Amino acid sequence: MAVQQHAPTQALERKLRERTARVGVLGLGYAGLPMAVEIAQAGFDVTGIDINPARVNAVNDGTSPVSDVEDATIRDLLGKQLLRASTSLDLLVDVDVVLIAVPTPLKNDRQPDLRYVQAATRDIAARLHPGMMVILQSTCPPGTTREVMLPVLARTGLEVGKDYFLVFAPERIDPGNARFNVRNTPKLLGGITSACTELAQILYGYIVDEVVPVSSPEVAETSKLVENTFRFINISFVNEIAQLCDRIGISVWEVIEAANSKPFAFMPHYPGAGVGGHCIPIVPFYLEAIAQRHGVMAAMIEAAGRINDHMPTFVIEKMARLLRESGKNGGTARVLVLGVTYKKDVADLRESSALEVVRRLHEDGYGVSYHDPLIPHVDLPDLKLKLESTALTAETLANVDGVILCAPHTDVDYDLVVTLAPLVLDTCNALKRYQRQNVVPL
Question: What positions carry a catalytic annotation?
Answer without folding.
Answer: 279
